[in-house]
Design goal:
Order of helices and strands: HEHHHHHHHHEHHHHHHHHH
Number of domains: 1
CATH topology: Growth Hormone, Chain: A
Number of strands: 2
Strand content: under 5%
Structural class: mainly alpha
Low-confidence stretches: 1-8, 14-34, 460-468
Helix content: over 70%
Mean pLDDT: 81
CATH architecture: Up-down Bundle
Number of helices: 18
Largest sheet: 2 strands, parallel
CATH class: Mainly Alpha
Shape: globular
């Protein structure tokens, strides 16, 4: 390694690193102590210089990376929204499987995949100064699963579609769990925390705008094409948009991290989780609040199924209600991002939880007209967008430096465990009792999540930038 490379190499911070104490000195000589002090001073100076170079590189490429991220939001998140929205996939699964439990089982399996993979992702990338290439590889594999969903709906007999979709969706979910860690690390490097709320709002606004237009197109497809080919074309559109987004994502100029964790195996990473939670109680309670918030969203996949029982039979209604959801989600996310930069993501979570209780209250009234169902999905879009934005991004307010990969993995793992249980529990409650019982349980979980966040998670709001 050349002298220049040694100067640019990131500092590796061992997970158990600590400051020396008096007992460590033993009988060392004064000269040795002086040499140690000189070495520590030199190491600190080298780290400070590396951090300064890193911050200068982030600032130099900020506008380019902001544009690349926004284009990724315009195309990439549009495609993902067609897969993750609480309308298209639940309706597709219900029509294939014929029950709420069929919907819940598949969403549970996907949640288990997202639960198992984040810690493995952290073990793989947390010690790497550059992570974009890994993100592109994982993102490409995710898009091939969506392409498989589209081709299966278009080419396979209807009886084979549920099992095929099940396998592809589970693979997609495992890759998604890996991607959340890698993408989170990359975003933390190129978008400063003080501007992250507005960035997320603009990114989701861009993606939501095109998603609303695509949902309108999907409404026409669902009306004019036979099932399941109509969904096959919808997923094919999702694949095209996400692939364009990946091209934009690959254009990001990633700086090399000045400080990274020591390489750790998956087992070592897993064993470090209890110490992390015990050493930072507010972070541990944040994980609890996120888990309860994920349970609170157990009703989300079943709104569209319940609405279809009260509305006149028209497959296009799924598309129309999806448009309402995407428009509301798009506008709300822009406002949630602005609010996050003012009061922090904790405040966003509490405000969105209040709207979610309101949405569940409207659902309890069993809307029987398209206008009433549209109002419900407007509330759902606003509330779900805020809760998900806050749940995912509050982790960055606990620190952006070394150890961030593990924090992202921990909160995503615990959150996805509850997100896996939620739709399965929701399907059981809806089939065994009623949708009204499901909504009441979801209200209780929402109140518990908000109370935990309000009373237990108290973090200082980071200093916010006032201009782009």
């Amino acid at each position: 390694m050349s002298a220049r490379d040694r100067r640019r190499a990131p500092e590796r911070r061992p997970p158990s690193a600590r400051a020396p104490v008096a007992d460590d000195v033993g009988t060392a000589t004064d000269n040795a102590g002086a040499n140690g002090s000189d070495a520590s001073t030199a190491a600190a100076a080298g780290t400070a210089a590396a951090v300064a170079r890193y911050e200068a590189e982030v600032a130099r490429h900020y506008r380019w990376n902001l544009g690349a991220h926004l284009l990724y939001g315009l195309f990439g998140t549009t495609g993902w929204r067609l897969i993750t929205a609480p309308t298209f996939v639940p309706d597709y699964l219900f029509r294939l499987g014929g029950s709420n439990l069929a919907v819940g089982v598949l969403l549970f399996a996907g949640g288990v995949g997202r639960f198992l993979s984040p810690v493995a992702g952290a073990a793989y990338v947390a010690h790497r100064p550059l992570v974009k290439r890994t993100a592109v590889v994982i993102g490409s594999a995710m898009r091939f699963q969506v392409l498989g969903m589209a081709l299966a709906a278009l080419l396979l007999p209807r009886t084979a579609n549920y099992a095929t979709f099940f396998a592809l969706y589970c693979a997609f979910s495992v890759l998604n769990g890996l991607q959340t860690v890698v993408y989170g690390l990359l975003m933390a490097k190129v978008i400063p925390l003080a501007r992250r709320g507005r960035f997320l709002g603009l990114r989701d606004f861009a993606g939501g705008t095109t998603a609303a237009a695509v949902a309108w197109l999907a409404a026409r497809l669902l009306r004019d094409m036979p099932f399941p080919a109509s969904y096959g074309v919808t997923y094919l559109v999702a694949f095209v948009f996400t692939s364009l987004g990946l091209v934009c994502f690959a254009a990001i100029r990633e700086p090399q991290s000045p400080v990274v964790d020591e390489p750790r195996s998956f087992a070592t990473t897993l064993r470090s989780v209890p110490a992390l939670l015990a050493g930072d109680p507010p972070f541990a309670w944040y994980c609890v609040a996120r888990g309860l918030g994920a349970l609170a969203l157990m009703a989300a996949p079943y709104f569209i199924i319940a609405a279809s029982r009260f509305l006149p039979h028209d497959p296009a209604n799924v598309g129309r209600l999806s448009v309402a959801y995407f428009v509301a989600n798009t506008i709300a996310n822009l406002l949630w991002g602005q609010l996050a930069d003012r009061i922090g993501f904790r405040g966003v979570f509490l405000a969105a939880a209040t709207l979610w209780v309101a949405a569940l209250g409207v659902a309890l009234g069993a809307p029987t007209t398209l206008a009433a169902a549209t109002a419900l999905f407007v509330l759902v879009g606003c509330a779900q967008g805020g809760m998900q934005m806050a749940s995912i991004n509050l982790v960055y307010e606990f620190g952006d430096g070394a150890g961030l990969g593990l924090r992202i993995a921990v909160v995503n793992t615990l959150g996805e465990l509850m997100a896996a249980i939620a739709p399965l529990a929701g399907g059981v409650i809806a089939d065994r009792w009623s949708y009204e019982a499901l909504y009441r349980v979801a209200i209780g979980c929402t109140i518990a999540a908000a109370a935990t966040m309000y009373h237990r998670v108290r973090r200082p709001i980071p200093r916010r930038a006032t201009a782009w």
